[in-house]
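Problem 12. The chain below contains 159 residues. Write out its predicted structure in token notation.
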Amino acid sequence: MRKEIAKRQFTCITPHFPTPIQQEYSVWEKILKCYLDIGYINETTTFITHSLGGIFVVKFCILNNIRINKLITIAGFNNVKFEKDLEIYNSFYELDEILSNFQMLCEKRYCIYSNDDPYVPKERAKEFAEAISGTQVEIKDKGHFSMPEFKELIEYIKQ
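Solution.
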């Protein structure tokens, strides 16, 4: 996706966050704050997130009072207890009442999910979208969107 985005003349930065070792909100926050400090995150920024990245960016923006232009979450969720949950997600989770504050910090919010995601049930992805007042987009038969190409995403970047 990075190559596809770059072909369309967008600046694309893909930070690397540790997982599963040191996968906790405070560690990820330090990494993203570096981008904030050098001016890469501002009111013109579009975040594209996958899975846990959605709740991370929402929480980051709320706790740091950061305005962004757009958030596109793919298979985003909050407060999901996974079968093999080793507590590695808990530091990212937030109350839905707090997540509702995100709509004041982000003008455009798209929450893309699939009907057959083996990890994030569609109902939980929809709950996350509702909590942040995001536009819900269901794309059939994409699983957890782990494939290298996702051409539908480009349309939401352009909007």
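Discussion. Strands lie at 46-50, 68-74, 106-114, 135-139. Students who got a different answer should revisit the alignment rule from Section 12.3.
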